[in-house]
Write a structure and sequence with these properties.
The structure is a single chain. By secondary structure, the chain is of the alpha/beta class. The termini are far apart. Helix 8 links the parallel strand 4 and strand 5. The strands form five sheets. The protein has a five-stranded parallel β-sheet, sandwiched between helices.
């Protein structure tokens, strides 16, 4: 900066050299020594001698004047520098402009303040002992992404400043810099922050309007998915959502309903894998009195109850071809026939289905009807697995921490180390696994700052990092195959006893055996 002390014409020296001459004259010493002390920020050794003299004080009146008072609602700026003189003069220039200014003498103390206090702009030197300016930059953006960071470098090169800009710094200043240059850069940073906040608000309003708050992500695959979702939502076509478990298929189905003309009518989800085939038909189509044991009165089915709304068939790949034929009729004819009934009942529902299976493979294996597949797959949507959009992990993790804080009344935050550990994990369980990991870390953390040690990830030591990830459906199939084979062996191949032991119906067991290519 061109002036280490404020200018007061007639009273204050016009430069560091002038200040040194004045101090040296007061002390009776050489000006070069005083100048060195001034540049090092070591004025303290001079003060006792100055105070002992009976001559007119040589400390400029501007230094003795009351500190500038920040204007109400002024932007808050944090100046970080381990050189006292540079830090103090930078803060003074900003304070004279009416900004509310705080100072930190180290990167560690700066991050501590950032954790507890909001700042609009952080101005940090790049080269400091301990945590350097890069660490302050990363920490500031992690704690508050809208905070603007200006970096100062005094080494005659801009390589470090360029690297900082690539990491998210708003701008940089090369020492020495003029007061006016500093103020211009700060003004630009504040304007950039204002625009960023405006855009964030608009984004929040947009997501609230379209009820997309639960679908968090800014990666290219997610932007493409959301664009496609909003285009098809306004129509009545059937949608097939495919993807691995934990990628948010039901959230997509709910977003489709929320943005459709059926939004005021019911959204009814059902998990086809969790209900036996007989019960599933009764639940969906309803039944007449006496249709089966226990049917003491007629009952309307869920499809009829959902008339006018959206019906979501989750895990549609787990249904039998016999049931699929009946569902095909619902989609084609828009009518159902209750179990035990002779008359058809018209229904008006939009059908959305989801599966984590490869239905084309299931068609080849005669486990899924091709005609139903094409009826469902009018518009396919496929949420990407988390390992293919890792740039969304910090956003998702902070979203889950924020939700935890609102629910529990806490102030948990994820440190850079915790986020790095999350980013390095492949998350075979996708967003659901990430959510569970973050919730556990937030619940068990010893302090508000969630560190890498608080993040516990499940790893498979037997799986080489060079091996491809195993799909969750393949893991489930392997476990089911082992359980069925063991039970069949114990029960000498008797299907009924095996089904009872495994807690499933006989038709369900037959279906699973056929899908897994198991013999009695």
């Amino acid at each position: 900066m061109t002036s280490g002390l404020p200018q007061n014409p007639g009273d204050a020296p016009a430069s560091d050299e002038g200040a040194a001459d004045t101090i040296a004259a007061g002390l009776g010493g050489p000006a070069d020594d005083a100048l060195d002390l001034l540049h090092e920020g070591s004025l303290e050794p001079l003060l006792p001698a100055l105070l002992q003299r009976e001559s007119k004080p040589i400390v400029p009146e501007a230094v003795l004047a009351p500190a500038p008072v920040a204007r109400p609602g002024a932007p808050r700026i944090l100046v970080v520098d381990d050189q006292k003189n540079m830090r103090a003069t930078t803060a003074l220039v900003l304070a004279q402009e009416g900004y509310e200014v705080a100072e930190s003498e180290s990167g560690e103390k700066a991050l501590q303040r950032l954790l507890t206090e909001p700042f609009d702009v952080v101005i940090t030197d790049l080269k400091m002992q301990g945590l350097d300016g890069m660490a302050v930059l990363k920490g500031a953006l992690e704690i508050s992404p809208t905070t603007q960071v200006l970096v100062m470098t005094g080494f005659g090169t801009v390589e470090g400043a360029v690297s900082a800009m690539q990491l998210g710094a708003s701008d940089y200043l090369t020492k020495p810099f003029k007061d006016q240059e500093l103020l211009v850069r700060v003004t630009r940073a504040l304007e950039k922050r204002r625009l960023l906040l405006d855009n964030t608000l608009l984004a929040g309003e947009f997501r609230a309007k379209y009820q997309l708050d639960a679908l968090v992500g800014r990666s290219a695959p997610m932007r493409e998915l959301l664009t496609r979702l909003l285009r098809v939502a306004a129509t009545d076509v059937t949608v097939l959502i495919t993807g691995e478990s934990g990628t948010g298929k039901e959230l997509i189905a709910r977003a489709l309903h929320a943005n459709s003309k059926r939004a005021t009518r019911p959204f009814v989800p059902i998990n086809c894998a969790a209900i036996s085939e007989t019960l599933l038909e009764s639940e969906l189509f309803g039944h007449e009195r006496g249709a089966f044991t226990g049917a003491v009165k007629a009952r309307r089915g869920l499809l009829e109850e959902a008339s006018g709304g959206t019906f979501f068939f989750d895990e549609i790949g787990e249904t039998t071809p016999q049931f699929q034929a009946k569902l095909l009729r619902v989609i084609q004819e828009h009518e159902i026939r209750p179990v035990g009934g002779n008359n058809s009942v018209p229904v008006d529902v939009r059908v959305v289905a989801a599966t984590n299976q490869d239905l084309r493979k299931a068609i080849a294996e005669k486990r899924f009807r091709e005609d139903l597949f094409y009826r469902l797959n009018v518009v396919p949507l496929s949420p990407p697995p988390l390992r293919e959009r890792k740039e969304d992990i910090p956003l998702l993790a902070n979203h889950f921490v924020g939700r935890f804080n609102r629910r529990e009344g806490t102030r948990r935050i994820l440190t850079h180390g915790a986020l790095e550990k999350l980013m390095a994990h492949d998350f075979p369980g996708n967003v659901r696994e990430l959510e569970n990991v973050v919730e556990q870390a937030a619940a068990l953390a010893h302090a508000d700052a969630i560190g890498a040690g608080d993040v516990h990830l499940e790893t498979d030591a037997s799986r080489s990092s060079t091996q491809p990830l195993m799909r969750l459906v393949d893991v489930v199939d392997a476990a089911e195959r082992h359980a069925i084979e063991a039970s069949l062996a114990r029960n000498q191949g008797q299907i009924e006893k095996t089904a009872r032991e495994l807690g499933v119906s006989t038709p369900t067991l037959w279906r699973k055996m056929k899908r897994l290519d198991l013999k009695k």
